[in-house]
Amino acid sequence: MKVAVEVADATELMPKDGHGSANPFVEVEFDGQRHRTRTKFKDLSPAWNETFVFNVSDLARLADQTIEVTVYHDKKSTVGGVGGGGDHGHSRGAHHRNFLGRVHIAGVSIALSADDAPLLRFPLEKRGFFSNIRGDVGLRVYAMPESAAEAAVAAPLIEGEQVPVEVLENKDKKKASSSVSPEEPQVFYSVGAGGKAAAAAIHGGGSALSGGGHPHSGGGHTISGGGLAYDFAQMKQAMTGQPPVNMFHAQTRADMAPLPPTMIQVRPPPVRPRNEYDLVETAPPLASRPGYRRSIIGGEKIASTYDLVEQMLYLYVNVVKARDLPNMDITGSLDPYVELKLGNYKAKTRHLEKNRNPVWNQVFAFSQHSLQSNLLEVVVMDKDFVKDDFVGRLFFDLAEVPLRVPPDSPLAPQWYRLQDKKSEKIHHGELMLSVWMGTQADEAFPNAWHSDAHDVGLESLANTRSKVYFSPRLAYLRVIALGAQDLVPHDRHRPPANVWLKLQLGHQIQRTRAVPGTIDPTWNEELMFVASEPFDEPLVLTVEDRVAADKHEPLGRLVLPLLSAAFQRTDHHKVAEARWFSLSKPTAWDEKAGDAEKKEHLHHKFSSKIHLQLYLEMGYHVLDESTHYSSDLLPASKLLRPKQSIGILELGILDARNLIPMKTKDGRATDAYCVARYGPKWVRTRTVLNTLAPQWNEQYTWEVFDPCTVVTIAVFDNCHWTGHKDDVRDHRIGKVRIRLSTLEVDRVYAHFYPLLALHPSGLRKTGELHLAVRFTCTSWVNMVALYGKPLLPKMHYTQPIPMRQIDYLRHQAMIIVAGRLGRAEPPLRREVVEYMLDVDSHMWSLRRSKANFGRIVALLSGVTAAGRWFNAVRSWRKPITTILVHALFLILVFCPELILPTVFLYLFVVGVWNYRFRPRDPPHMDTRLSQAETTHPDELDEEADTFPTSRPGDIVRARYDRLRHVAGKVQTVVGDLATQGERVQALLSWRDPRATTIFILLSLAVAVFLYVTPFQVVAVLAGLFLLRHPRFRSRMPSVPFNFYRRLPAKSDMLL
Q1: Closest residue by Cα to residue 380 from 344, 326, 427
Q2: What is the DSSP letter of 242?
């Protein structure tokens, strides 16, 4: 197989000749092969239209290889001295050139055929930090068969236009004698190391490819013996599972068949990434890319913010109202509705009973892909029990429909006189509507009835529309319960048994500890709650006496409004005085009590009081997701938030592919929609019904206040568009997380992200989500300054919340957010919010434990590698390296002021060296790091289990035994670590008197020696002793190590 690179043109290059222009040429390098184009003189927007063909040495490594396209300015070229294309790799030193930019194309993004390879615009990249580069280059990259023999084996021949051989000969002679026209594309074939026969087949006289002789004549050279065609056939057979191909007959047919003069395009085997769970980089036709700023409509520019999605054409029909409709029933009534017909697609408005002047105000949207007719029919019908009656109709030719693109004002609706079935205007009845062509940037798009959902009922239609949501502003409520006074027990002859305070805020209930046998209890406890704006839920406090295990008697009750009772603070130094609140008798405010009883107790004197401090903490950020991938870190108080954002995050949700069918029982595919969350803003795309490859092409924008945050995007299957009950849950399909700090500024990342799901049967790929992401920085100074500031607001560090409360408060915040978003229309249901916020991330998982252990091992691998290197140095395995280390050691010892500069210079050099290996793609879910591919199914089933468990007893016992086995190993490691630490403590603890005596006497001797000996001498002696030759080193453990191992530990004191 070969790879073809078509170099089309470049635009707006950087001037390099000192006169405001440049002489650009392009050099393409792939797999050790290099080609260059002709030089274009005095042209900053040159057009080459040249195609280079490269050999693929190893198809398995194609996904790991990179095509490097570099644009240079030729300083020494002249008009007469410029040759054509071909392999100019050896002429590299003959030209003096200046760098104009380069492009790296990953092997996984190579199109499978020329038909699938659009002309893409690639912005030129810098070579260094101080490079001044601009412009872009247009390229087409695709795979193609190696030879005609390979095409004959791989696919049937495609008939092309037969050109006489004489014409080809004359054309080749003209090409050899004169310069090539810039409009005529050229194709160059690379010569590999396969021998002279292959070279002759491509460049030799009379070859089949050059057209120098007839294919049937003996002068033509062909690839014999199978060769690459045989390898290609065997590879295809291995991928498809077909029986072996008899290459003798296939090669004979290929030799006998005349070679067509035109290039034959076949579809080669798909080029897959290294892992099916890896990212796949794409280059969709987005307006944000250079060269794609032209609309798909008429070639005119469109002023729109939808530059991260592909523009989709829609036919919009806005049915506004009707007037003076004729009576159709005997009773003189009319129940009108409007029906739209466009090919096989039909859409209806709601019918209005007994109304001759109905008002609908409904917008319908037909996708361009679903336009099955050039004529739109609008019919007004009268709803009837038996058969609906015809009232009137209109026809619109789609070729005459106007185009509207924002920011144009909305198209004004017009009155149209209805026609009868003979296309004659009727005397009564007019319909007001407007028809236009637009894109998804139209204001009517979110609320329109789309062509794939016209059969959805009005009540269920809201569950398919795209919406934007905002989480409520949350704050922590801190309640310090000091005590109570003069409580009145129900039995005055018996003091209270156990008195505690019960506090309730919405669904959150907490209790203090119980204080036995007193009417003046003192608790001095601090309790935390999560409150949400507008803080209208009261705090209900009830003092209860626990008289029995399951019996609690209320002794008093207090209902406090938060805004008036709690002190709002943003600084922990501000302290509010504790207040006494009077308790009311509990029965007076019991909901079950009657009105007469309530009035009676309103005048009843009740002297019990409670001592409280209440703070509405506005200086914290309420955590509703894990801090490891949080999307919002701002405090609750608006006064503490930054006044200006540091950037803008733009997300384009393009489409998805290869989704798994989620409704196979219902005979449907998948009704997919996406949910994205960043900060308090949630977005939901529209639901695309009954397809495994939905296209959304919706773009959303967020303000960014901290780059060290994460945006989360998830795909769900909508189970409520048909009007299902609330107990039905939307199915999870997959999730993607993108950390903003890993994105380059102003770069568009377009990738297919794998959607992964863990099932008890194992890891499952549920599809791929196509996203385009761009992070734009608006304030570089503020963004750089953020890296020196704390991640969370100040209150988290000056008055930290105990870790035991963090998980509880986070769960309560999730419940509040889910409840608020669940009351929207369409609702974001609780299962969606739970999945987006990862509420089960703190649950036990053996797989996660293995993954975290692997992360620790990976971190320590650098230390162990350094230890192995040092051991190799001191073992003199490489004498030259050991001598250099000795020299460096002596220099640093006698010049200690060079140690820190050397260390930081080393860090700088390593960072600069690693820049060339920096990640090109944003991070994604790593299946290997997560231990998802090698996990046992029983471990995955345990991870998916509920809490408390719902599995049978024998399975729970087996898992408990396995947990005991794992915990035993952890226990042994922890015990060994404790043993080493206790041995260090035993040096001076006199647990072993002889060992302590030896150590303190040795310490005294070392101290005297160090006082009288210069430090450099000590360092040199110690270093040379450690680096001594193995001939002077014993294989037995050293004396200090033996002394340390003999020190006592407390392991023998354990039971």
Answers
A1: 326
A2: P
Helices (H), 876-936: 879-894, 899-915
Count of residues for the chain? 1055
Query: How far is 1019 from 1016, CA to CA, in rounded Å?
Result: 5
How far apart CA 1055 and CA 1051 sit, in angstroms, is 9
Contacts of residue 883, Cβ cutoff 8 Å, sequence gap at least 6: none
What is the chain's Cα-based Rg? 39
- Give how far Cα 1 sits from Cα of 224, 225, 728, Å: 16, 17, 51
Token pair for residue 428?
């009564």
642 vs 279, 291, 568, 704, CA distance in Å? 35, 37, 19, 11
H or E element in which residue 941 lies = helix 937-944
DSSP-based three-state secondary structure for 346: strand
Amino acid at 658: N
Judge contact between 166 and 212, C-beta under 8 A. no
Classify each residue of 738-763 as buried b or exposed e, where b means 16 or more C-beta atoms within 10 Å of its C-beta. Answer: bebebbeeeebbbbbbbbbbbeeeeb
What is the Cα–Cα distance from 309 to 225, expressed in whole angstroms?
A: 50
Q: Left, alpha or beta for 732 (phi > 0: left; psi -120 to 50: alpha)?
A: beta
Q: Are 22 and 100 contacting, i.e. CB atoms less than 8 angstroms apart?
A: yes
Torsion on CA atoms 811, 816, 822, 823, rounded to nearest 10: 170
Q: Could you give phi then psi for residue 1053, rounded to 5 degrees?
A: -95, -5
Please answer whether residues 36 and 73 qualify as being in contact, where contact means their C-beta atoms are separated by less than 8 angstroms. no
The pairing of beta strand 609-617 with beta strand 567-569: parallel
Amino acid code (one letter) for 125: E
Average pLDDT over residues 997-1024: 89
The 10s digit of each residue's pLDDT in 926-941 is 888 888 888 888 888 8
Show the beta-strand stretches assigned E in 95-177.
Answer: 97-106, 120-123, 136-144
Cα–Cα distance, 460 to 175 (Å, whole number): 67
Give first-to-last CA distance, the chain, whole Å. Answer: 71
DSSP string, 577-594: PPEEEEPBPGGGG-TTS-
pLDDT confidence bin for 292, thresholds 50/70/90:
low
Per-residue pLDDT of 90-148, as tens digits, reads 444 444 678 899 998 888 788 888 888 888 888 888 877 677 888 889 999 998 876 53
In the structure, what pLDDT confidence band is assigned to residue 225 with cuts at 50, 70 and 90? very low
Please give the torsion angle defined by the CA atoms of residues 350, 354, 359 and 363, in that order, rounded to the nearest 10 degrees.
Answer: 20
Question: What backbone phi and psi angles, to 5 degrees, belong to 340?
Answer: -105, 135
Q: Is the CB of residue 399 less than 8 Å from the CB of residue 386? A: no
Task: Provide the 3-class DSSP secondary structure of residue 1014.
Answer: coil
Strands 609-617, 33-36: pairing is unpaired
What percent of the chain stands above pLDDT 90? 33
Rounded alpha-carbon distances, angstroms, from residue 296 to 109, 117, 181, 313 = 23, 18, 30, 9
Torsion (CA) 804, 805, 807, 811 in degrees, nearest 10: 150
Q: How far apart are CA 918 and CA 924, in angstroms?
A: 15
What is the Cα–Cα distance from 1036 to 1055, expressed in whole angstroms? 34
Q: In this predicted model, what pLDDT tens digit does every residue of 387-430 receive, in sequence order?
A: 888 999 999 998 899 988 777 888 899 999 999 888 888 888 89
* In the chain, % of residues over pLDDT 70: 81
Please write the tens of the pLDDT for every residue from 335-373: 899 999 888 788 888 888 888 899 999 999 888 877 778
